[in-house]
Amino acid sequence: MEKDLRRLVIKAYHVTEVLAGDENRVTVDGKMTVSSDVLEGILSKYPQLEKLDVQVIRPGAHDRWTNTIMDIIPISTKVLGALGEGITHTLTGVYVMLTGVDVNGKQAHEFGSSEGNLREKLYLNRAGTPGNGDFIVSFDVVLKAGMGQEREGVLAAHRACDEFIKIFREQMKKFRGEKCTERHEYHDVARPGKKRVLIIKQVAGQGAMYDTSLFAKEPSGTEAGHSIIDMGNMPVIVTPNEYRDGIIRSMQ
Amino acid sequence: MGIGPSTKETSLHHFRDPLLDVVSSDEDLDLMGIMLVGTPDDNEEKMLVGTRAAVWAEAMRADGVIMSMDGWGNSDVDFANTAEQLGKRGIPVTGLKFSGTAGQFVVTNDYLSGILDFNKSAEGVETNMVGENNVTELDARKVTARLKLEMRRRNQS
Fold this sequence. Notes:
The complex is a heterodimer of chains A (252) and B (157). Chain A is mainly beta and 252 residues long. Chain A is built from 4 helices and 18 strands. Chain A has one domain (3-186). In chain A, 14% of the residues lie in helices and 40% in strands. In chain A, β8 (76-80) and β9 form a beta hairpin. In chain A, 52% of the residues are buried. By secondary structure, chain B is of the alpha/beta class. Chain B has one domain. Chain B has a 3-stranded parallel sheet, sandwiched between helices. Chains A and B meet through β7, β14, β17, α4 and β18 of A and α1, α2, β1, α3 and β2 of B. β14 (195-202) of chain A pairs parallel with β1 (29-37) of chain B, so a sheet runs across the interface. Chain B: InterPro entries: Gly_reductase_pB_sua/b.
């Protein structure tokens, strides 16, 4: 007999149009505009950073320069409950791409980097990358000299990006549940009598560009996250639903 | 050192990880959870955290473990040790790692036969293309089937 431990509902809202506009806004019927107006305010909080830029990359329009890709981030927010239970709203059709370089042109990377023509640097349609038909919101960070290799610089880039995403999260919290385009229900279950299996994921934990953040308040977020480095790289356990609700922010 | 752009798992990958989907939906298995273990710089620390992971698995009475990592090179040391610590405790272990031609295990031991390669590039190298050498659903199915086989063998021996 299966034992149902808890339920997580992820409601997806499909975005069909993303444009540069006067404000940062996403509507429940899938229209999104992004604006660079807020960037100056965000930048002022991070002395490690020199410049921020956001741009819309339309599906297929990948014949363009990219700085090294630090992360691809889904835009999701908790609406009810903590990570791993309750309700999460997420956008499909659009993902944030965080890229970084320092003022001297040194790419923010650790071991190998992915700067160049985006068409040749981003493999589409993987679990961790956008699909052919998806928009990308490019969040490009210019760090102060050498900061792309320093932990505080890289963290600042992730945090600045997270602040930008937060603007959309706040709007998505108010989306009406029944307007979602997809609804996924996930249950953490125990299956007594079946083979007990554990997944062990070895994650980055060596330094500035090789870190993993856990336990943020928002899905795939950084705010209130704990670095696995700061936890001594010791093993920690998360539930399947916590994992699929974005309890990990990849910082490598 | 220890990771390349084509193997690294993005936050989006973790949000919709095929390995979790496959294992959690398999009704023959009771997935207890996902353990996350870091990759320290220092060699002694590498041994420590991997051993602690194996002790956890034993304490949980795991019948089997699927390991996965998105790094290669230096982080093989951690990976191989954790597999060995699990194996020594009699816990069947399979896993996923990028090998190709460039990322073959830099260390080896007797407990790595169930570790499968998820290289996707034609030449088996780090292509610097984000997402290319990532775990897909097919990889996840293979490693899960392999674990079931290993667990069955264990029962028969």
